Amino acid sequence: MDFNLTEEDKAFRDELRAWLDANLPEEERLSSVSFLFEEGDEMWDRRLAWHRKMAAAKWVGVGWPREYGGRAASLMQQAIYAEELERARAPRLVNNLGIMLVGPTLMVCGTEEQKSRYVPRILTAEEIWCQGYSEPNAGSDVASLQTRAVEEGDYFIINGQKVWTSDAQHADWCILLVRTDPSAPKHKGISYLLVNMHSPGVTVRPLVQITGNHGFNEVFFEDVRVPKENLVGRKNEGWQVAITTLMFERSGTGGHRDFSTHVRELAKLSQMIVRDGRPACDDPTVRQRLAQFAIEASALKYMVLRHLTMRLRGTPPGPEGSMVKLFAAELNLKMNSFAMEMMGPYGVLERDAPFALDEGKWSLRMLASRGLCIAGGTSEIQHNIIGDRVLGLPKG
Fold first, then answer.
1. DSSP E strands: which ranges in the chain?
2. Domain that holds residue 323
3. How far apart are CA 37 and CA 383, in angstroms?
């Protein structure tokens, strides 16, 4: 791995850092409490305003081609971009699915009319997108989906249900996989549609998580009419378009949190907690656990950099992404579990409750931890991928 930046990369970093310092006031920077799965209307509005401010300065979709409004940033620059946003504690953008998946897929597979109609509104967040893949009986095995689309004149008529649909409560549009030929093998007979979420017959119901918030939803389609011009690719060949979308998802950069910050916060917590009249950090077993977490956080950082180096050398995204995802999800769970262990009875206090330690953020993080072991492919699925494609183990 080469840790030296080119002059061009340094200029990119310095330009972005200067812009963030000038345009992101301290009061708008996220506190350490802010975390994945924590969402509400106020936070959404805050993120939307920030997204549009960044978009006006051309700091959204930096990896997109220039002709579509991006900066044609290299993989290294995209990694720098993610690091600088985290360094500045910037709010998350609101249209990540559109930026990371929908736009790039339409650039490859969409018609010229679809590109000109939908792509420009993604970067500006004029239209928010969600992804309709998973179903109650087709989660990890998406190709088993049963949502149907039947042709009727110039329209497809859709009936079915999707689940775990992130941001559906805010979305204007959805990339939807539907079965258009029920008699075909499961990877055949699937079509890829662009569906207006404001269409009659679309119902969005929130899935309230254990944190008390909801970012996921279940979506019901009842006789929803979709114009045939919203078909991406060919009818019954949508699985190939879906694979294109998944490849963009797997090749995304900068999606992994810097756990060294998490370790520092955990060390700070150990100084707040008193055991037998002394700070918990005086206990050698506590210090040993903190040191182990610091080692694992560094290992994860270099694992991500190693993966990035392979891609910079032209190697396509592979199963190494499963190693990073699994390691990050499990490390996050272990660290939050240890925080609860240190706090003892105080660990059950909710965020901002009286007497809650460190604003009660650790109980919120602990409740959210299991979600990270499921989202983006469960830990069990990641183990199977690593065993099969990395270690070459026989299938059980």
1. 129-132, 148-152, 155-162, 173-179, 190-196, 202-207, 216-227, 231-232, 274-275, 278-279
2. 256-390
3. 24
| pTM of this structure | 0.86
Evaluated on CA atoms 329, 330, 333, 334, the torsion sign reads negative
Say if 101 falls within a structural domain: no
Catalytic residue among 38, 218, 249, 296: 249
Annotated active-site residue 249? The verdict is yes
Q: Which two tokens stand for residue 294?
A: 């610091």
Please list the residues that pair with 135 across neighbouring strands.
138
Write phi, then psi, for 217 (nearest 5 degrees): -150, 160
Q: Which of 228, 242, 258 is nearest to 332 (CA)?
A: 258
Write down which residue in 45, 72, 94 finishes a domain.
94
Number of Cβ within 10 Å of residue 186's Cβ equals 15
- DSSP of 202-229, one letter per residue? EEEEEE--TTS---EEEEEEEEEEEEGG
- From the list 176, 184, 187, 174, the residue with the least C-alpha distance to 144 is 187
Beta-bridged to residue 221, according to DSSP, are 160, 202
Distance CA 186, CA 105 (A): 22
Secondary structure of residue 162 in the 3-state scheme: strand
Q: Over the stretch 143-176, which tens digit does the pLDDT of each residue have?
A: 899 999 999 999 999 999 999 899 999 999 999 9
